[in-house]
Amino acid sequence: MRFKQLDEKDGLILEHLLDNGRISHAELGRFVNLTRAAVRERVNSLIEQGIIDKFTVIVNPLKAGKSMSVYLNIEVQWGLLETVADTLLADEEITSVYQMSGGPHLHVHALMDDQEHVERYLRKLQTIEGITNVHSEFLIRRFKEREGIQI
Question: Is the model's pTM score more than 0.85?
């Protein structure tokens, strides 16, 4: 996928950064045939334009002791949707909260230690005002996962 405002060099820079966000400007310059300074200017420009949103680290949840990846479809009362979302955002287990189309519900992803942790969290959800129903599923296997978009 190419952005209209990106030239070929910017696209190549983004491809390399998506593969390795810690790559140095000098090494990146060697890959895209630009000086370190020119690469730094282009990366800074991509940040200023909002094309690069952030640089981050992705932690492998299994290696960090989170063996359960749980997806929750949470039905809520319309008037309390924002309040419920804010409550969920404060929980350390929650990695993503999305408002979905088709009615007042949230699609939520959580990382949990084990099945007992899942059970405790589901009981906790029953105490949150505005939640009318919770459907939970846990991940068996990932076939593909990525952050953002590919260039």
Answer: no
